[in-house]
Amino acid sequence: MSFNCSKCPGYCCSHSRIEVTDKDIERLAAHFGISARTARKRYTYHYKTKDVSEQILRHHKDTVYKTVCRFFDRHKRQCTVYAARPAVCRKYPYGNTCGYYGFLRFERSFHGDEEFVPTA
Question: Residue 119: exposed, middle, or buried by beta-carbon count in 10 A (0-12, 13-18, 19+)?
């Protein structure tokens, strides 16, 4: 792989619609020792349009991005439920490269700062 998630400030966790399946909700419920119904209510909301109907993970405010997944630790910049993370998170970035990581490496090299994080 040509990316290192531990050096990223959590770009993928800032996606506004992180869709979860029933199986993902069950995994999170087991992780927290609660019912799937409670997990669904506590951690997700239903997003529906004419063409789309999805369960989406809730977000909270962030200092780097506008918002991030509610399970993202904003100080450590890492997932707090990594072992129980949803399938979509397990699959990201859907290949051997992450476009954001490439951009981040370029920006850090350009600025001569290995900790640089571009903000909006």
Answer: exposed
